[in-house]
Amino acid sequence: YINAHGTSTPINDPTETAAIKKTLGNHAYNVAVSSTKSMTGHLLGGAGGIEAVATVMAIVNGRIPPTINLEAPDSDCDLDYVPHRSRELDVQVALSNSFGFGGHNVSLAFKKFIQ
Predict the structure, then answer these.
(1) Residue 11: which CATH number?
(2) Phi and psi for 112 in degrees, rounded to 5?
(3) Helix, strand, or coil here: 112?
(4) Rounded CA gap, 42 and 83, in Å?
(5) Which residues form a coiled coil (predicted)?
(6) For the chain, what is the radius of gyration of the CA atoms?
(7) What H or E segment, with its residue span, contains residue 88?
(8) Fewest beta carbons within 10 Å, which of 30, 47, 52, 96?
(9) HSE value, Cβ hemisphere, 13 Å, CA-based, for 25
(10) How many domains does the chain have?
(11) Are 59 and 73 in contact (CB under 8 A)?
(12) Reported pTM
């Protein structure tokens, strides 16, 4: 699962989609991707922390948060963006992308803890 930066902007979303495809190759089409910003709006300095928590909770609860209000995605944005409704999924590994102004970018990887 990838919690995308997903700002719903014409520059960011296709660029992030291209980066996911470049990183994962054809496997990108098998990975659920969503943007919690679709529900919270952009929280600026707080966005990365809140989205990291949402990503961990997807692992803990086995449920991917949806990308709400996804009606007409850019033609370059052709991955599985989990539109409109959350989805049950046994998430083993997840990534949270956060991109800040001035090139302050981070991708956090989380893995399910198994005792």
Answers:
(1) 3.40.47.10
(2) -60, 135
(3) coil
(4) 18
(5) none
(6) 13
(7) strand 87-88
(8) 30
(9) 0
(10) 1
(11) no
(12) 0.94
Residue labelled with tokens 């707080």:
46
Q: Give the number of other CB atoms < 10 A from CB of residue 28.
A: 19
Q: How many residues does the chain have?
A: 115
Structure token digits, residue 11? 């520059």
What range does the domain containing 87 cover? 2-111
Looking at 1-115, list the stretches that DSSP marks H as alpha helix, in order from N- to C-terminal side: 12-24, 37-40, 47-61
d(CA 25, CA 20): 8
Q: Determine the Cα–Cα distance for residues 28 and 76; give it in Å rounded to an integer.
A: 13
Beta carbons within 8 Å of 61's beta carbon, 6+ residues apart: none
State the Cα–Cα distance between residues 18 and 6, nearest whole angstrom: 12
